[in-house]
Amino acid sequence: GAWGSWFAFAERYAGLRPSTHGYVADSLTQTDELRRRLTEVVLRRTWSDIADLPATKRERHVVPLSPTERLKVDLTVSDYRKDLSFPVVAGQLARYRREVGMIKAKAAIELTKQWRKEGPVVVWTWHREVARKIAAAIPDSFCLDGSMSEQVRSEVLVGWDWAAEEEFGED
What pLDDT is recorded for position 166? Predict the structure, then answer.
């Protein structure tokens, strides 16, 4: 992409250096250049920009894994450890989280279907693949992610706001 590889980015802007446990990127470098480049890709929102959102309702649901699902995750993690293209633990952990998220998506789909009976629902996920799996299983839903332009996201959200007002009424 426009930023190059993770290593190229970290070398240029984050003071990348080797350590005893992989690499450490712990200092800002080229800050003026980074700020200038970020203005092209960052859309910053403050609380005052989004103050009209409804109250957030957070619920934590523990999703137990079956023995088969646990075995699948264990085997996947074992494969990740053999993959030398991700020598840093953080990269392996992200891949592990994605696998667990894909397994837990079934429970998220069922909960989301229940909650939609009460009104519009926003589901946040860590990984794009998990979000797409959930959206694909729920009728009249959509998935927004960082690969979409701001214009496309805005168009989708305007359509969603309209649908929510039609179905549930304005407050």
Answer: 46
Residue type, 99: E
Give the pTM: 0.58
| Cα–Cα dist 93/77, whole Å | 9
SS (H, E, C) the chain: CCCCCHHHHHHHHCCEEEECCEEEECCCCCHHHHHHHHCCCCCCCCHHHHCCCCCCCCCCCCCCCCHHHHHHHHHHHHHHHHCCCCCCHHHHHHHHHHHHHHHHHHHHHHHHHHHCCCCCCCCCCCCHHHHHHHHHHCCCCCCCCCCCCHHHHHHHHHHHHHHHHHHHCCC
Task: Measure the N-to-C terminal CA separation of the chain; round to a whole number of Å.
Answer: 43
The mean pLDDT of the chain is: 80
Extract the tokens encoding 46: 């403050």
Tokens standing for 108?
Answer: 């998220």
